[in-house]
Design brief:
- Helix content is about 65%, strand content about 0%.
- By secondary structure, the chain is mainly alpha-helical.
- The chain has two domains: about 110 residues, no CATH class; about 120 residues, Four Helix Bundle (Hemerythrin (Met), subunit A) (Up-down Bundle).
- Strands 1-2 form a two-stranded antiparallel sheet.
Length: about 240
């Protein structure tokens, strides 16, 4: 079952697709930087006969840093952690998604569509905490698993240690937490649909497909792990 949950799980380096995706993601970060630091949004507005600008440059800068940190973590995932094949359809589909949400969150949170800035407050502190915590959960859990799998004595075994003791898909949970924080930082409640949509995708698409793949690969060892460990939210579900 190489194809599972919309991705190809066959082991393969896929260096060229990974590099192309990383380059496309870098271009998205470059556009975000142009908007924040070089009045790029005002330039775009000028092309349409109206000057637009970001009314909240401090928040825009924080959102740009979130995008930059996510970009760096994506590089770690692509070139160190990810052992499976990356298909071209995944490359371009994810690149479009990255462009849509990273530029979109920057414009919404940075005040492209409102006249006044929003002062930083406790909600922003919570948002940054969630972003950092979720980023750590996602990346560190996968680093732990990578280091464990590099030990020849663990070849062919099901990994159930580290942060994965608390949730079968703690890396996915980290994604939800970080995107919740990233969305909160925009101070626009409608943006919370993004982490909500992610939960639905994980619960009904990615987790069932991945669990079926792992059950076929590890058999009774995975079944025992699944029996006593929550799927996504530690100790809850």
């Amino acid at each position: 079952m190489a194809q599972s949950g919309g991705v190809n799980r066959e082991h393969h380096r896929s260096n060229l697709p990974k590099f192309v995706f990383w380059l496309l993601h870098f271009l998205v970060i470059a556009v975000c930087s142009w908007i924040v630091y070089f009045n790029g949004w005002r330039t775009v507005g000028g092309w349409f006969g109206q000057e637009w600008q970001l009314s909240d440059p401090i928040r825009a800068g924080l959102l740009l840093w979130c995008a930059a940190i996510y970009f760096l973590r994506t590089g770690i995932t692509l070139f160190y952690l990810l052992a499976r094949r990356v298909d071209w359809s995944e490359v371009f589909g994810l690149a479009v998604f990255m462009a849509f949400f990273e530029i979109g969150l920057l414009l919404v949170g940075g005040g492209a569509f409102r006249a006044q800035p929003i002062n930083l407050d406790l909600l922003d502190g919570l948002a940054i905490f969630l972003f950092v915590s979720g980023s750590w959960l996602n990346t560190w859990s996968e680093v732990q698993r990578k280091l464990w799998k590099q030990n020849p004595a663990n070849k062919g075994k099901c990994y159930v240690d580290g942060l994965f003791r608390h949730s079968m898909h703690i890396n996915y949970f980290g994604d939800v937490v970080l995107f919740a924080g990233w969305s909160l930082l925009t101070h626009n409640i409608l943006i919370l649909v993004l982490p909500f949509f992610m939960v639905l995708m994980f619960a009904f698409v990615h987790i069932p497909a991945l669990d079926a793949y792992l059950a076929g690969r590890y058999g009774s060892a995975f079944d025992e792990y699944a029996r006593k460990t929550k799927k996504l939210v530690p100790y809850v579900w």
